[in-house]
Amino acid sequence: MPRDGAIDAVEEHVMAGWDVTLADFHQLIGYPGYRSEIAPFFEKWFDYTIEGSRADTVIRSRQGDAIDLTELHRRIQSSPEQQYELYQTAQSLWR
Predict the structure, then answer these.
(1) What integer pLDDT is reported at residue 36 of this predicted model?
(2) Domain boundaries along the sequence of the chain
(3) What is the dihedral of CA 34, 60, 25, 16, to 10 degrees?
(4) What's the rounded Cα separation, in Å, for the pair 63 and 25?
(5) Residue 46: other Cβ atoms inside 10 A
């Protein structure tokens, strides 16, 4: 039976080992000290900006729409390249 591309993507995601948890994702985008390292990814990948800090953090599209953070996290985690880049940056910030 032919494989579904979505199944392959899920398996690749699980196998990659570069997961950033949702809680860690919130920390990365919410902590002001990480902003200069993290914000450029969202601008480059999605044309999004980060506003606020800590519990008041919001990611917005250029049109001003608030982006669902859980869905954004899922999108990043489903992209091996983005997942890897975010993970590596997080690890360097947490050292």
Answers:
(1) 93
(2) 17-90
(3) -110
(4) 23
(5) 16
